[in-house]
Specification:
9 helices; single chain; alpha/beta
Length: 212
């Protein structure tokens, strides 16, 4: 997803030229790990098919030269009403059949859709923002098991039935299953440093708004 502010005549000084903001997936860019912590300066984008794909997306969105202020927002799993990842989870969780995926120990970087839109808007409107921003919530220590428990609590349902790794691989295929079974602890360090104020920094409040 990318957005480009309407352009100005080329004769205007560089500070008034168009800005470009694009969004890619942090969960695909950074290498899965149970111990590593990733911020916007951490390496990644070169260890499997999806990470290389994100690297190519970011390269394609980049404009040549230094005349344009450019921002890349690497988003986590987006939580919102009426679609996205949450729509696939709601039915089993409403039936009391939800639970962690695989071991549940993997980190689960997430963001409410209102905050993803807010970060993109902030990046376009704030002239000091530049480079990579991690579009994830500050509650970066959320594990998949903690997410399952929080979603169950938001729905008033138990969430104890794990989805075995072999079932995930059978449904999604090996490469796509990695994104669900292996997570990353992603920190929005630069996003916070730019002054962005989150509407939903905590998982419980975000999920309650989504399922209300």
């Amino acid at each position: 997803m990318s957005s480009l502010r309407p352009g100005c005549p080329a004769a205007m000084p560089p500070s008034t030229w168009p800005e470009r903001t694009s969004s890619t997936l942090s969960e695909a860019y950074y290498q899965p790990s149970l111990t590593a912590e990733y911020d916007e300066d951490s390496p990644g984008g070169d260890f499997d098919f999806f990470s290389n794909l994100v690297t190519k997306w970011e390269a394609a969105a980049r404009l040549p030269g230094d005349s344009t202020r450019q921002v890349v927002v690497r988003s986590g799993v987006v939580l919102g009403r009426g679609g996205g990842a949450i729509s696939l989870m709601l039915l089993p969780f409403r039936l009391g059949l939800g639970g962690p995926i695989g071991s549940g120990h993997q980190f689960f970087p997430w963001i409410h859709i209102r905050d993803l839109v807010g970060i993109l808007t902030h990046a376009l409107e704030a002239n000091h923002v530049q480079g990579v921003l991690n579009g994830v919530a500050p509650a970066s220590t959320t594990t998949n098991a903690a997410f399952a428990q929080a979603l169950g609590a938001a729905l008033g349902r138990p969430a104890f039935l794990p989805l075995p790794s072999i079932a995930v691989q059978a449904v999604y295929g090996r490469e796509r299953a990695i994104m669900l079974l292996e997570g990353q602890k992603v920190i929005p360090r630069r996003t916070l440093a730019t002054g962005y104020q989150y509407s939903f920094p905590e998982l419980g409040a975000a999920l309650k708004e989504v399922v209300a």
